[in-house]
Amino acid sequence: MPSRRELANAIRALSMDAVQKANSGHPGAPMGMADIAEVLWNDFLRHNPANPKWENRDRFVLSNGHGSMLLYSLLHLTGYDLTIGDLKQFRQLHSKTPGHPEYGYAPGIETTTGPLGQGISNAVGFAIAEKVLAAQFNTPGHDIVDHHTYVFLGDGCMMEGISHEACSLAGTLGLGKLIAIYDDNGISIDGEVEGWFTDDTQKRFEAYGWHVLPDVDGHNAEAVKTAIEQTHQVTDKPSLICCKTIIGWGSPNKQGKEECHGAALGEDEVTLVRETIGWEHDPFVVPQEIKDLWDARAEGADAEAAWREKFEAYREAYPELAAEYQRRMAGNLPQQWAEKASEFIAAVNEMGESIATRKASQKALEGFGPMLPEFMGGSADLAGSNLTLWSGSKPLSENSFDGNYIYYGVREFGMSAIMNGIALHGGFIPYGGTFLIFSEYARNALRMAALMRIQTLFVYTHDSIGLGEDGPTHQAVEQLSTLRMIPNMSVWRPCDAVETAVAWKTAIERKQGPTSLVFSRQGLPHQMRTSEQLANISRGGYIIRDCDDTLDGIIIATGSEVSIAIEAAEGLAQQGVNVRVVSMPCTDVFDAQDTEYKEAVLPSNVIARVAVEAGVPDYWLKYAGLNGKVIGINRFGESAPGKEVMNYFGFTAENVAQTVNAVIA
Ligand SMILES: Cc1ncc(C[n+]2csc(CCOP(=O)(O)OP(=O)(O)O)c2C)c(N)n1
Ligand SMILES: [Mg+2]
User: Fold this and answer.
1) pLDDT digits (tens, 9 = 90+) for 455-480
2) Angle in degrees, CA 325, 150, 199, rounded to 5
3) Ligand 1: which atom is nearest the Cα of residue 193?
């Protein structure tokens, strides 16, 4: 019977061969972690290759995503729908095996990794999601939510600051089913890490409150197995297994050296590896007896079937909970949602409050929250400013996971990547707040959410120079435009409470990507709308003030600038200048409307246009046109009372009116 080492060597061979064929990729980590992966996947991981979406599967995250061939090999060997042909297509156009694991390409990939540090943070999100769902749904004798989250990470993930943010919170929350395995090989791209990474990782994680198993020999299957077993005994703390490994294990000339981190070994060396590890098979050939031992399909089907049986018993005993669990995991909104949400929006319109949109956002949470037990809110230590708490918010703590709100602490990047993990797990719509300016701290997690097309809701308040006294360090200038430039990111900047409620509703309904909801610190006046205008908010841009006569010009505005634009249009009307005002809370939704609608809102023959937004101007040229003008801010702001700053930078009705006149002339 093949030895464990031989099973692990299948990973080594497939990985080095695929990298060699592509002449691109990272053989070092897969060859170094093969023995660990073999033990975890063959002895512990509960999964069903035939159903990668089985709700109660263990989650596996490869945070050191450059080692993608490790994961692709595992998926292939255990019987997922990933063929040898797919492995041969490693890193080729439209293959299922891109350079780094990407969510949605190969079955069994739980999250997109590659940007170091984010996989481990996603894993914290997975583990939180599991623990909360368990608290919400499990009943005595019915543990229908009960799985582990395993994550591999390397020196790079450990060095990244986000690992501190996420792992510190994981310790505080006591995520006992989170098991991280550290590939402690002493090597990163630039060479031996001693020159730049000398942390005492064991002490570091112990200080976070983790259970740490130091100095495990990552090439000794028994030692790894014992270590993983030990982690299962500790249920009140996340576990970290520090495995000493040799990068590129098996490569006589390159193992232990940075050379094998990120380049093909070369044909000659590949041949030498075959000799060294005793792998006599041709490239991409795995002998049947080794394949058979890897094949996890029968066991996986049994595991899922056993769970389904358990679930049926649960359904018998708790039919409503079972139905609700299935609704949540399927990502469906409650039955009454559409109707009730529209009723709420009508009520907000009726009420006509003039309040800051961050306040309106809280009211929207108050309106929608009771319908949405899948909400998992939070803020990076700005709950009182972001107004992300509502009366139904119940915080998570180490001892209480039956909640729906996370105090993330001052950890914007960690929060965002954790939210991505929560969204990926299923069962939740995560939202989390900070100031718009600090979206910068989190940006790559927003990009990952957009790349994965997952529903993470980013709540950003204090949206512009209008926030006032905190000054230029806190005043967003380029953020609105740059968020809009992230493909698949939807960005809303509403002008009043009514647009705010619509923005939230749209974000809650948008399953195919993340949404940034951008709100003002300062109060904004309610706008009167006809029922048609009310309905058109959800089209992203609409006529909020029109005129009966032939149009002389159009003002396009967002957020706090809409009321200024309307005031300008009213002043101009008195001078006999006919100006339409278009409120454009969401450009991506507007852009997706049919041509007819867009033409009706922004007729192409009206070229006298002024766009107004308290942010960098260039983005708006696509609506204002080359004959138009943009009133924006092309520098950093100033510290002063908000109104004064707005006046100073020309966000006044007078300046808007003058600019319109200049464009018309
Ligand atoms: C955020 C981020 N920065 C930089 C990189 C580029 N990069 C990929 S792997 C790597 C070194 C990782 O070292 P380690 O985790 O020890 O991996 P090993 O070489 O041991 O496989 C770097 C800098 C990246 N992928 N993500
Ligand atoms: Mg390393």
Assistant:
1) 999 999 999 999 999 999 999 999 99
2) 135
3) 16
